[in-house]
Write a structure and sequence with these properties.
1 helix; about 90 residues; mainly alpha; single chain
Length: about 90
């Protein structure tokens, strides 16, 4: 090979490597941008899921409170009725 032929080969190899490197960098940029968008979407989804979970937990807590209070009321009325019956039986 002559000097000019070697230079041509080096230039061609350099251009090929340069274009390949450019393509890799462009692909990485595209991936990073898409990941950024996906991160934002994931953050939004995570906050929505968190708020829905909180709402569901609060609803179940409210229902549990209602159930316990109604159970307490039922127990209290049952105690009253038992006492009332016991008093009636004592009178006899």
């Amino acid at each position: 090979m002559t000097a000019s032929a070697e230079d041509d080969v080096l230039v061609t190899v350099g251009e090929t490597l340069g274009s390949a490197a450019g393509k890799v960098v462009a692909g990485a940029k595209r991936t990073a941008e898409s990941l950024g968008e996906e991160k934002e979407q994931l953050a939004r989804v995570a906050t929505k899921v968190r708020s829905k979970a909180r709402r569901a937990i609060k609803k179940t807590q409210k229902k549990a409170k209602k159930v316990t209070s109604s159970a307490k009321k039922a127990v209290a009325t049952a105690k009253k009725s038992v006492k009332r019956v016991a008093r009636k039986l004592k009178r006899r």
